[in-house]
Amino acid sequence: MDTLQDLRKTQNAPRDRLGRELRDLRISVTERCNFRCVYCMPKEVFGKDYPFLDRAEILNFEEIARIARIFREVGVEKIRLTGGEPLVRRNIEQLIEMLARIPGLDLTLTTNGSLLKRKARALRDAGLKRVTVSLDSLDDAVFRRMNDVDFPVTRVLEGIEEAAAAGLAPVKINTVVKRGENEDSILPMARYFRGSGHILRFIEYMDVGHTNGWRMDDVVTAREIIATIHAEMPLEPADPNYRGEVAERWRYKDGSGEIGVIASVTRAFCRNCTRIRLSTEGRLYTCLFATTGRDLRALLRGGASDAEIRDQVAVLWSARADRYSEIRTSHTAKLQKIEMSYIGG
Ligand code: SAM
Ligand code: SF4
Ligand code: SF4
Question: I need a surface site. Which of 85, 198, 233, 262 has the fewest CB within 10 A?
C-alpha cells in the first residue's frame, strides 16, 4: 500500500458520529517538563512531590511506534509529538527515527524551545521535518515570569534560528495570550516575526485541565488580537491552506507575510476536529477536554494483535461525539479534565 488513497479504499477510514475522519494523532511522549508555565503546569500543583508516572508505566519507543503504524493504517496522516516537553524525553531522536520510517506520515513536534539549539540538527537528521515552538513573550521579564523557572528568552530565540538553519522550516511560533500576563507582548511579537519566514500564531487561553484556574475574563480573544495588530500593521483575511485548518490566517496588506489566530474559545472548530490524543501511559482521548481515556497499553501489553487494536480504535472513534469547545460554559470549565501536560497539547 503506497498512498493514502489506497489506504482509504482498503481500510475504510472510520468516521465519528459527527462525520469527522480520524486524521491526526498527538502523542505525549512525557508528562514531565523543565518549565512551569503558569497556564499549564502551575508550580503550586506540579511541585517537587508531584507524582509523575514511573518509567515502567510509560509507553516505550517500540510501543509508541507500533501504535503509530496502526494509526497510519486506519488513515492518520499526521503525527505530532508533544507533552510535557518532548525534548526532555531521553533519546527522543531514536523514536523520531522509528516514526520517520512510516510511509506517508507527516511528522512534527511541539516544543518550548529550551533544548532546541542543542538538538535541532539531531532531530532533523533523525527525520523530523518541522517544529512548532511555543513562545509567549519577547520581553525577558515577562517570559521568565510565565515559564516560572527563570528561563531566558534569548535561548529560545537561538533555538528557533537553529531549527530554521537545520531545515526544520518554516518554524511555527505559538503564543498563548493570557490577560494580565502577556497581552502587551502581542505587538512586539508581531513586529519581530513579520518578514522572518517563521509563522506566528496566537492562541486563545483555554480551560484545559483543572489546575490553571481558568476564567473567561482571562481570555484575550482572537478578535482583540487581530484588532491590536491591524491598528499598526494592516491585515486582511486569507483563505485556509486546507479544509479544517484550525488557525485562521491573516496576511499583512503590504505583503510582508502572515499570522494565524487559533480561536479555540470564541470561534470553536470542533466540527472539523480530526484529532485523537495518546497520553504518556498509553491512554487514548478523543478530545482535549476529555475526562476519561481508553487504555491501549493494556491491549499492547496483554498480547493483542494489530488487527484487534485497530478494531478498538475504530470502535472508539466511531462512537465519538465530542464538541467541548462548542458547548463550553462556566460550569464545564470546572470539570475534572485531564491535564494538558499529560494528554498532550
Ligand atoms: N512543552 C511543549 C510546548 O510548550 O510547546 C509542548 C506541550 S504544550 C502543553 C503544547 C502547547 O499547548 C503549547 O503551545 C502551550 O502554549 C499550549 N498550552 C498549554 N496550556 C494552554 C492553555 N491553558 N491554553 C492554551 N494553550 C495552552
Ligand atoms: Fe511545559 Fe509546554 Fe506546559 Fe509550558 S506549555 S509547562 S513548556 S508542557
Ligand atoms: Fe476537538 Fe475537543 Fe477541541 Fe472540539 S474541544 S476541537 S472536539 S479537541
Answer: 233
Q: For a pocket test of ligand 3, which of 324, 327, 328, 338 has the largest count of ligand atoms closer than 8 A to its C-beta? A: 324
Residues facing residue 250 across a β-bridge: 237, 259
pLDDT at 11: 54
Give the pTM: 0.94
CA of 134 to the centre of ligand 2 (A): 8
User: Can you give the pLDDT at residue 326?
Assistant: 86
For residue 73, the CA-to-ligand 1 centroid distance in Å is 28
Q: Locate cell 462525520: which residue?
A: 19
Ranges of beta strands (E only) in 22-74 are: 24-30
Can you list the domains of the chain with their CATH numbers? Answer: 4-343 (3.20.20.70)
End-to-end CA distance of the chain: 31
Q: Is 307 left (phi over 0), alpha (psi -120 to 50) or beta?
A: alpha
- Report d(CA 109, CA 28) in Å as an integer: 10
Residue with cell 470553536: 268
Residue with cell 487561553: 205
- State how far the Cα of 135 lies from the Cα of 143, in Å rounded to an integer: 8
CB 155 within 8 A of CB 117: yes
Contact criterion met (CB below 8 Å) for 89 and 53: no
Amino acid code (one letter) for 225? I
